[in-house]
UniProtKB/TrEMBL annotation:
PROSITE patterns: MACRO (PS51154). Coiled coil: none annotated. This is Macro domain-containing protein. It comes from Youngiibacter fragilis 232.1. CDD domains: Macro_OAADPr_deacetylase. Gene3D superfamilies: Leucine Aminopeptidase, subunit E, domain 1. The lineage of its organism: Bacteria, Bacillati, Bacillota, Clostridia, Eubacteriales. Residues 1-169 form the Macro domain.
Amino acid sequence: MDSRIEIAKGDITKIDADAIVNAANSSLLGGGGVDGAIHRAAGPGLLDECRRLDGCQTGEAKITKGYRLKARHVIHTVGPIYRHGQDNAGLLRSCYLRSLELAASNGLKSIAFPAISTGVYGYPVEEAARVALEAVNDFLGNDDTLERVVMVSFDDRNLKALQDASRGV
Ligand code: ADP
């Protein structure tokens, strides 16, 4: 695994990085889970900017400022709602890749991800951890702008899934 990838446990809203990633919904107008936590911590300026973005499609990403967060930017991506018969892994991988592309094209050096889609969107945690780490590792293989990518777990199950997955990447 690329040495720039770090696996951590905690609250992503507290992380000091050039960007934190929000597991948003397609309206970009806020929600529960990590989305709600990021909007609460960032303050109302974030929602004002999000209102001007006209939503975001599943697997895509959009960037805003970080407002009251320690992080300078928020990259909003929309994970897939896990469904049988859909290319869940392709869409989830796309969230990570599009977010990393946005970070790199904006000259950012550090970015932190939550476990996209593993909350109310129902993506199996172990499978999601493998998709996430593979996507980040593949991207970094062709990138020399990013210096640090933090995979942030809110709970022990996600943390263990990432640690296990890191042995196979
Ligand atoms: P989704 O709709 O993409 O499933 P959720 O917000 O419901 O998004 O959950 C995504 C993941 O984010 C879950 O694993 C959840 O435990 C985690 N999470 C929730 N709050 C935070 C937080 N403050 N920091 C980091 N991760 C969080």
